[in-house]
Amino acid sequence: MRESGDQIENSGSKGTALPENAHSGQAADAITHEPRHITVCICTYKRPKFLKRLLSELRDQNTGGRFTYSIVVADNDALESAKEVVSEFATTSTVPVVYCAEPVQNIPMARNKAVEHASGEFIAFIDDDEFPTKRWLLTLFDACDRFGVDGAVGPVRRHFDERPPKWILKGRFYERPTYPTGLVIDWKKGRTNNVLLKRRSFPPGAQPFRSEFRSGEDQDFFRRMIETGCVFIWCNEAEVYEVVPPTRWKRTVILKRALLRGSVSIIHPTFGWQDVVKSIIAVPVYVAVLPLTCFFGHHRFMALAEKLFAHAGRILALLGINSIKEPYVTG
């Protein structure tokens, strides 16, 4: 397996990495005479346009003088297609950036690669098809300090550069639920598309994300960390925006993502016989009801079809049928 971890030279300066003190709250939190350091981790796969936009928006984060930050880009493309974008960014940015590559197309492995190259007391994650507000990191940082927790998760708002079909808007596809700031989240609300984590919350000497998950590896991470005593909260003011391009308006993409979501659900430790029964009942019921939804608008039809495919993906996986051949579905 070939791998790389190249420091891209620029004029910025990194904060000093501190030793891990998992769940202890000891020396790392006691040091206050110098600004603390955040590493922003980005996993990317063949999205140069989106990655360029994200890096540009990360260039001038408002830190309030309370922390320094750097960036790690983990390229999940064996051809290292993102390296040129990162190099170009480094020539004009004062924010330190490290490029590394994970040639095996597997998003948990790419996340682990990014964490390996991260430095400092905090690790943030944001997806390569997103972009943050100027106070994104500062808002998450303030929330972690104010509530004294191991991490804060923020909302991801959908963003369209072009106006999508009405059924996408009416069906509220790609919208995600939000919660009040300060809410202690359970693992099902845990996401790595907008999060700041204290490094001590990562398990020492272990890979934080499990490679057998093709989707939902972030929820699995939060479940395991919460079981060890970590506390994570929701921070509703720390917004990032997910770009939803026309390729994701395709019905096939929406349904394939649902199939994948259903198929990986069976490997989760919380999966049980109740879930099996639910899917066995849901599939024939949804198949019978689906034609009737046409009378209530295409958005209703697609919303029910999405649920049907998620349950079908679960049943197919239980039967040993791999319904999605790709390592993960992109759009």
Largest sheet geometry: 8 strands, mixed
Task: Please write the string of helix (H) and strand (E) elements.
Answer: EHEHEHEHEEHEEHEHEEHHH
Structural class: alpha/beta
What level of helicity do the residues show? Answer: 25-40%
Principal-axes shape call: globular
| Strands in their spatial order, largest beta sheet | 1-4-3-2-5-9-7-10
Report the β-strand fraction as a percent range. Answer: 15-25%
Query: How many extended strands?
Result: 11
How much is the radius of gyration in Å?
20 Å
Mean pLDDT over the full residue set: 87
Number of helices: 10
The separation of the N and C termini measures 27 Å
Low-confidence stretches: 1-5, 9-32
What this model shows, in words?
There is one protein chain. The protein is α/β, with parallel strands linked by helices. The chain is 35% helix and 17% strand. It has helices at 27-30, 48-58, 83-92, 107-116, 136-147, 166-170, 217-227, 251-264, 273-289, 298-318, and strands spanning 4-8, 36-44, 67-75, 97-101, 122-126, 130-132, 151-153, 156-159, 194-198, 232-234, 240-243. The strands form two sheets. The chain has an eight-stranded mixed beta sheet with strand order 1-4-3-2-5-9-7-10. Helix 3 links the parallel strand 3 and strand 4 (97-101). It is globular, with a radius of gyration of 20 Å.
